[in-house]
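To: structure subgroup
Subject: Chain for Friday's discussion

All,

I'm putting the inputs and outputs inline so they're searchable in the archive.
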Amino acid sequence: MSADRSRSAAAWLASAHPRPAEVYEAWEHPYGVAALPCAGPYTAVRLPEAIVQAAVGLDDLDALCAALAGALHGPVIHDPGNRRYYPLVAAGAAKGWPLPWAECLGPEYYLGIPSPAAVRPSGVNGYWAVPVEGPGHLCDPMAVEELARLGQERAAGVRWCDWHHGYAHGTELVGVIEQMSGPGVSLYACQDCRSAKGLRSVTEQHI
């Protein structure tokens, strides 16, 4: 992207904030993130990482990002720390959005927008999996919805992990918290968390 287009894209992103200078200040660090309201020219759809991986059928990050660029035709943020992707769409898409499990963020939300310079992963920092091409260049909401539905259909065995607080493949029941009345609370953990925390699935506990 040319320097002029990069500057115009940055100015457009920052325009969602009532004080754009604060956004630029947050972006002074290469992986700085600015909290911007989803009530401006754009918002985002919050997609679990596992759903995206299932939809495109890829785990390799470079290949996955290329597939997202081809499928959604617009900018996408990846938040590795929370294992989520955020395709940017027009703010009006939140009204009547049909997928409660892949939420389109409404005007009451704030979204962490990475510096436009953050286009490669760096630890748990958010970055642009698909960079912003220019002002007003957004993902097609129908394409995002189609990808989310496809990922949900393909993601057999994907559940919420109660340890890293995100969806993941290979999540298994590891325990139940008993309550005085009513059913117990089931606790699930993904493979990575089971390994890191020394957890065993209920099936393994009875072997």
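Points worth raising on Friday:
The longest helix spans residues 141-154.
The mean pLDDT is 88.

D.
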